[in-house]
Design brief:
single chain, mainly alpha, two-stranded parallel sheet, 10 helices, 2 strands, about 0% strand, globular
């Protein structure tokens, strides 16, 4: 711990945390306002996975499109607000990570600071990889499965805007957060809390945890669950590669 940090009182730390939270929330709010000003372009991107020209649907043998309906008077307005806030949060994510780093770094020793910085630098890239995976792969695969699935020809699938947005949020934002796992492991490994051997021994438990997470995020059908579980387990193996060996651990 640095001399400056050791001199800070509890209230000084609380004030620093308040400033971090305020600037983070402010950045999300400002970016959300920008998205509020471009509703047509924003919703064109949000609804693109429902259109036949989406990249995944251009693959040979794939023919898919869907239409949405609105069954609630205020649903479109509140969806517009929620999507603007979500996009603001996604775009502000690197800045929020930077604010968190500024808050925690004074409490670290120099050797810890250098190691933990790598995890924070990696986190933004992993987050956007997760967002892209959810948007371009997992979401359209889930849409194709559910829209085309029917227990009877007498039942027509009519998809509401709210149900689509619920799936969109879980597929895009939550998967982005889950992709942070290797960055978290890198930080814990740098601090000597975990090592490669521990993760290798925990593979069987990781498989169960990945399947449970995939079931919670997706609509719990086996197909979409495994579509998400595969990249999530790949992240676990990546974490093993990034993690320090037992003899290298602090």
């Amino acid at each position: 711990m640095t001399a400056k940090d050791s001199e800070m009182s509890f209230w000084d730390h609380l004030e620093a945390l308040r400033g971090t939270l305020f600037r983070s929330v402010l950045s999300v709010a400002l970016l959300s306002v920008i998205f509020l000003a471009i509703p047509k372009n924003l919703f064109k991107a949000v609804l693109w996975p429902t259109q036949p020209d989406f990249p995944l649907y251009r693959l040979p043998g794939v023919d898919f499109s869907m239409s949405l309906i609105n069954i609630e008077l205020s649903a479109q307005f509140f969806t517009y607000m929620k999507v603007s806030l979500l996009c603001g949060l996604v775009l502000a994510f690197p800045y929020i990570i930077w604010e968190i780093w500024k808050f925690v770094s004074p409490a670290l020793y120099p050797q810890e600071k250098k190691a933990v910085r790598k995890g924070f630098l990696l986190s933004s890239g992993l987050f956007y990889m997760g967002v892209a995976t959810g948007y371009f792969v997992v979401l359209p695969v889930c849409l194709m499965f559910f829209v085309n699935f029917s227990v009877s020809d007498a039942i027509v699938n009519t998809i509401s805007l709210s149900s689509y947005m619920s799936l969109f949020t879980s597929m895009v934002f939550l998967i982005g957060l889950l992709f942070e796992f290797p960055a978290v492991i890198l930080v814990l490994s740098s601090l000597g809390i975990v090592n490669r051997g521990v993760l290798r021994k925990g593979r069987r438990y990781a498989v169960v945890a990945v399947l449970v997470l995939a079931a919670l995020i997706t609509p719990s059908d086996p197909f979409s669950m495994f579509v998400l579980a595969i990249p999530l387990y790949g992240l676990y193996e990546l974490s093993i590669v990034l993690c320090k060996k037992e003899e290298e651990a602090v």
